[in-house]
Amino acid sequence: MGKHILNDPKTAISDSLKGLAFLNPTTELYDSTLLLRSPAKDRVHLLCGGGGGHEPAHAAFVGDGMLSAAVSGQVFASPNAGQVEKALARLSLAKGTLIVVKNYTGDVLQFGLAKERYSATHLDSDSVRMIVVGDDVSVPRSQGALTGRRGLTGTVLVYKLAGALAAQGASLDDVEHVARVVSERCGTIGMGLEHCHVPGTEKGEAYLKDDEAEIGMGIHNEPGIRKVSPIPSAAKLVDEFLTTLTSTSDEERSYLPFEKDGNEVILVVNNLGGLPELELGVVVKEAAEWLANKHIKVKRAVAGSFMTSLNLPGFSLTLLLLPREGIPSPASASSSTSSLSVTSDLLVDLFDAPTDAPAWKWTFKGEPNMKVEKADERKAAKKEDFPPRVRAATDSKLFMSALSEALKSVIHAEPEITRYDTIAGDGDAGLTLKAGAEGIQDAIGANRVSDTDVVAAMVAISAVVEKDMGGTSGGLYAILLSALSKGLLEAARDQDAKEATQEVWARGLELALNTLYQYTRARPPSRTLVDPLSSFILTLSSAPSDPKTLSQAFKAAKEAAEATRDLDAKAGRAAYVDQEKIREAAVPDAGAWGVWKLLEGVQKVLSQ
């Protein structure tokens, strides 16, 4: 997508930082740096930064318990050393500052230069230290031998855990030690469905085809390790990513020391900027199931936007492998006075520690788990389950044939109905009807729909429609079918009939329509499914004993559905759409056309 809501691409970063400063009054904006207004003088401070375009990273993680300051460059461009030096000067250095940057050349050089300049001009030169985070496992060892792995979402875990320790008053040695342990035990891999678009640049041709995805794509539009087509399912992508992250046999990409069993992790599911929350939830579900199946215990988990690439539609998975035993400070670090041993419990406690950084997501303070209660399997509809009350007239096979043909008709018409609804609605009518029809087909195949009792059949079909369709149309159909089951029974009793004759159907449908009117304000002509439904029922009810009436009812329903092409919508979601555009498109209402397609299937069987 090449469209953006900005004032000017040149001021996008500064404008965004001002908005963030407004939302978080504990911070202030200085030059291109967002920092705490009153940084504590008795703590270690974490300073980070990098190019813009990765929001909420980095500035939205400034807050008590995480970062003290974040320096922003322009989109995908590192800030310069002078900007970083200004940020250092604004922080209290009583207990030191730890600079945390992603492993990208520009960030390392500019923040490193600022650190060296500080060291050259201050006696307490060791009070500013720097850690470079590289957690991208898609980069093979041979390719990244000199540059190392790219820094991705694992960087945010460093902010959170090291920042939490700093907030507790720990020494610079201890904070740095935790940051290094987290960095070294993190792995991340991601994918994208397309490159992101950088504001102010021309919109080019699509980088990926409609049926392509790219694995290992970087967060600055760097190409990934390979393109795949067709786009794999969420389950296959998660399987590949977690297999890569947990592998110990891949010489190029086995970076984390997983063992055969007893592994514990922290999981981060990251939205790279343009993935709907719906799809992110699917990824979370697949990751949770995969890890459970591999007996890898997830001690903590979090999902959301942490390290993005503007509007890139994709996601990444990050695992922090928790240590089995405490990891002491390296004995070779002669300058280190840290006696802290980094344990699994410590890292989990730091993950749970409170922070007021606005971008950090709420997380459950305990081990996540997924409880899915399985619905009781419905019994097959047997004669003893549904005693015959109203038999199908003349031939039960004819009833089932008509029902089956109606379902086939609406399933076949799905693309057509979807197209109509895309123009004049929300685009889901065809898929909703298809889902309901396929659910009924499954119920018929499992003998859950009676072929001898039309009342029991309507009850069973209504339950399927309610479950499988959902939405407005699903609710309307479910109410209609439930009311129809009652109407058929009442009509049969009133007429002292044991079979569903045309008169019984006509009276039952009329009662069902009146019930439906209690739950919708739509009345014909309204450009809704009520139009053909009402025309069919009222025509059939006008002379229910006349054999010709049925064909007249089918004709009336088709004409009513066709007539919706020229109607303004008075109800339903189409009522909120520009009516002039609907008239120009000259398409029938999707719901009305769906009703007609169902009736058309019935007509095909009955007219033979």
CATH top-level class of the largest domain: Alpha Beta
Gyration radius (Cα, Å) is: 32 Å
Give the name of the CATH architecture of the largest domain: 3-Layer(aba) Sandwich
- Give the helix/strand class: alpha/beta
The percent of residues in helical segments reads 40-55%
Please indicate the percent range of residues in DSSP E strands (runs of 2 or more).
5-15%
CATH topology of the largest domain: Rossmann fold
- Tell me the domain tally: 2
Shape: elongated
Task: Find the count of extended strands (DSSP E, 2+ residues).
Answer: 14
Q: Low-confidence spans: pLDDT under 50, at least 5 residues? A: 380-388
Report the span from N to C terminus: 52 Å
Count every helix, treating DSSP H or I runs of 4 or more residues as helices. 18
Mean pLDDT: 89
> For the report, how would you describe the main beta sheet?
6 strands, mixed
CATH homologous superfamily annotation of the largest domain: Dihydroxyacetone kinase, domain 1
* Strand ordering within the main sheet: 1-2-4-3-5-6
Structure notes:
- By secondary structure, the protein is of the alpha/beta class.
- A six-stranded mixed β-sheet has the order 1-2-4-3-5-6, with helices on both faces. A six-stranded mixed β-sheet has the order 9-8-7-12-10-11, sandwiched between helices.
- Helix content is 42%, strand content 12%.
- The protein contains 18 helices and 14 strands.
- Mean pLDDT is 89; it is low at 380-388.
- It is elongated, with a radius of gyration of 32 Å.
- 47% of the residues are buried.
- The chain folds into two domains: 9-197 and 208-352, Rossmann fold; 391-606, Serine Threonine Protein Phosphatase 5, Tetratricopeptide repeat.
- It has helices at 12-23, 81-90, 105-121, 154-167, 172-184, 234-246, 277-293, 344-352, 396-412, 414-424, 429-445, 454-468, 471-494, 502-516, 530-542, 548-563, 579-585, 590-606, and strands spanning 27-30, 33-36, 45-52, 69-75, 97-102, 128-133, 186-192, 213-215, 226-228, 264-271, 297-304, 314-321, 391-392, 499-500.
